[in-house]
Every structure is written in C-alpha cells, then in structure tokens.
Amino acid sequence: MAGGSSGRKMDQTPSWAVATVCTVIIIISLLLEKGLHRIGKWFSDKHKRAMVEALGKIKDVDDSRVHLLVADVCGDYADKICVPLSAGNTMLPCPSGKRSQAKKEAEGSCGISRSAWSPRGGCWLGQGKVAFMSAYAIHQLHIFIFFLAIFHLLYTAATMALGRAKIRRWKEWERETSSLDYEFSNDPSRFRFAHETSFVRQHTSFWDRIPFLLYIVSFFRQFFWSVRKADYLTMRHGFISVNPLGPGTRFDFQKYIKRSLEDDFVVIVSISPILWASAVIFLLINVHGWHTLFWISLVPPVIILVVGTKLQAIITWMALEIKERHVVVQGIPVVQLSDHHFWFGKPGLVLFLIHFTLFQNGFHLIYFLWIWYTFGLNSCFHESFGLVIARVAIGVSVQILCSYVTLPIYALVSQMGSRMKRTVFDEQAAKAITNWQKLARKRRGGGKSSTHSPFRTPTESRSGA
C-alpha cells in the first residue's frame, strides 16, 4: 500500500470507525432488502408473475455479496475522508506499542516524509490527518463479511442437526403410545392419586416447593434430566386433550414437535436489525484494555442458562398445579396450557433470547476464526492466550447446550401455550388455512389478522419478543 493512511490495518483502525462503516453497510443492505420486498409485493398485487420470478432470482443472490458490494462503495468514500490523527489513534484494539508502530508506518512508510501527500487517501499526514478507514482495512472487512456468511450457514446447520438429533430420541416414546402396555397403564378409567403419577412425583419434591430452591434445582435439571419420559408423555397427553384433535386420536406428537422446531428455525436463521445492532456495539467497544472479547463472550452462556432454568421451572409449575387442583386423577394427569407461565405471557420472548444467544455466540466464534486467519493466534486482539482458550471453550459449550438441550425443550414446552402453532397440521393443511385467513381478511376489507387467532407463527414469535 502506498501512503500511510491507506496501509493501516484493522488492528490499527479505531473501533468507532469500524463500527460506523459496518453500521452504514448494514443500513444500506437492510434498505435494499426492504425495497426489494416491497417491489415484490407490488408485482404480486399487480399479478406480474414474470416480474415476481425475476425479482426472486435477484433475491437468491447471497446476502454476503450484497454486503460486499455495499462495502466496496463505502470503502471508496471511507478511504477519502480525513480525520485528525488524535481521533484516529483513539479506541484502538491494539496495545500502545502497536499504536506507536502504526503511527511510524503512517508517517514514514515507503520513504514518504511527514509533510507528504497520501496518494490514495488524500490526507495531509504532515498536518496530522489520516483516513477514516484505510483501503486495506476495508479489504480485511471484506474477508470478515465472507467469513460471517460462510460460517453462519455452517453454524446454523449444526444447530439444526443437534436439535433434530435430540428430538429423534423421543421417537421411541411416541411409538410406545401405540402399544397395549401404554393403553393399559394409562387407562382413562383408572383412578390414581395425583402425587403417585410419575410426572407429579418427579417434580414435586421438597426442593420444588420452595421458590428459591425450585430455581436451583431447575438450573441443574437442564444438564441431567432436560426432558424425561414422563414429561414428554404428560405434555403430549395435555396437548392432545385440550386442543381440538380428539382424545383418542393417533396424533404423532413427536413429528409435530419436529415440524415446530423447523418452524422456529426459520426465525433462528434470520438476522434482525436488533441482532445487527448488537454486533455493531460489540465492534464499537472492542478496545484494548477493556477485555471486551472475554466479557461479551459471557453473555450467551448467562442468557441460555437463565432460559433453560426458566423452561425447567415451567415444567415443575405445571406439575405443582396438577397437585394443587386434584387429589385424584383419571388416567394421565392433564397439564394446564397457558401463556402465563412464560415471561410477560409471551413464549416468543424465550425464542428471541435463544435466537439472540445463538447469534452472539456464533458471531464471537466467527470473529475468533477471522482473527486467527488474518492476524494469527498471537495477534494484539488476543491479550491473553488463556482467555482465548476460555472463550472458545465457552462458545462451543454454549452451542451444544443451546442446540441439543435448550432449543428442543423450548420446542416442547412452548406447545403448552394458550395457542397452538400452525404446524399442528401438515404442510398442505397449513397452507389451506393460511389462504383461507388471507381470503377472510380481504373480505373484511384487508385488515390485519386478529390478535385472537388460534395459531402462532414464527413472525408472531419474533414480534412477541
């Protein structure tokens, strides 16, 4: 790179400059996406089928290409904007030794004197001016965007694979519901004391009756007994009994949970403006001496452990409610389905927290891989190699815990809400109901769907947060 200002790397670029450029890239990309969506809706309303298909081809272009294109445009301007050297040397991710070296390189690389003119950035180095963000730093940002696109796909695929693997283990319990032994042991005409049923007995010990101890037990229960057979069978029975499926129906609850997980996965794969904002904040406060990489890496495990504890506590509350309502139960105890068990009565808030955790955790792991590839393990970003090992170990653990434990528990417990999801029906039936709802809205004048709809969709889960 000729000229000092054009040669500053990302490790010598202020975090506020990186965060600003990323914010501009994200805003422009989101506006383009929103604009394409509105154009597509207009074509659809006008019945321009060919234009809708053509627009669909444009949308098929990977988001990373859009980000890279926008980054190129932003890079051309960022490299030409001059800022004072004092501002350019604040909030750097590298220690002071690296900062001094960067200043020397900016002032004297390629034999350029302090009073020389930077041929690319157009900044008077002799007057203490540097580029807002150098062309080389923009190039490294391109690499980071590429890493983010590729590894986000791999990360989300691993999340789905682990979640499906956990739910697949419940298939044997579902098969058991069709056996004669199951029908005999859970005969609806058979009366039992509520506290003698497996579900109530497992969740109404002395520790579960005291609120403080209940949360402690729930915290550890997510690691060892995340979903037990009695939990699955009881919630399955409660769901089938309360929803309009018929008590004696041969409903495959395990397949329904799997479809529900796939429905929630649509939300998890997407990246909302709130998540992009959290990523920009992370880049902004990534300053040397603040140990940001380590402290921010603790946020995902804290959130996911709190969510897992909450979900386990909900299962316990349902068992306690059965014991309080009934001394004797007939057949399998029926759990009470209600949204009031969840924070603010919104199951979608739990899904948002899981989504936020997976995004933040994946972002930190991808950021580590990008630093390793671009600067090496011994770069200035890694102030302590021990903290690096701890961050990676925490990230991998959170990925496994969230994907294999917390997300499947949510897919099961969220069925205990006040409204069932549209995945209770197969794909064709769900499409037919959706089309019927759209037609009904048009007949009423095109208003939005009623808030009292019996179905909950991924969009509602997202907005419910």
Automatic annotation (TrEMBL):
Subcellular localization(s) per the UniProt record: Membrane
Q: List cellular component terms (GO).
A: membrane
Q: Which gene encodes it?
A: MLO
* Task of the protein: May be involved in modulation of pathogen defense and leaf cell death.
Per the UniProt entry, what species is this protein from, by scientific name? Spirodela intermedia (Intermediate duckweed)
Belongs to which family? Belongs to the MLO family.
Topology versus the membrane: Multi-pass membrane protein
**In terms of one coarse class, where is the protein primarily found?**
membrane
InterPro entries reported in the protein's UniProt record: Mlo
One molecular function GO term is:
calmodulin binding
How is this protein named in the record?
A: MLO-like protein
Q: Name one GO biological process term.
A: defense response
Q: What is known of its domains?
A: The C-terminus contains a calmodulin-binding domain, which binds calmodulin in a calcium-dependent fashion.
Q: Where are the transmembrane segments?
A: 15-32, 143-163, 210-227, 265-287, 293-320, 349-373, 385-413
Q: Which UniProt keywords apply?
A: Calmodulin-binding, Membrane, Pathogenesis-related protein, Plant defense, Transmembrane, Transmembrane helix
Segments carrying the region annotation (Disordered) are: 440-465
Per its UniProt record, what PANTHER family does this chain match?
Answer: MLO-LIKE PROTEIN 1, MLO-LIKE PROTEIN 8
Task: Specify residue ranges for compositional bias: Polar residues.
Answer: 449-465
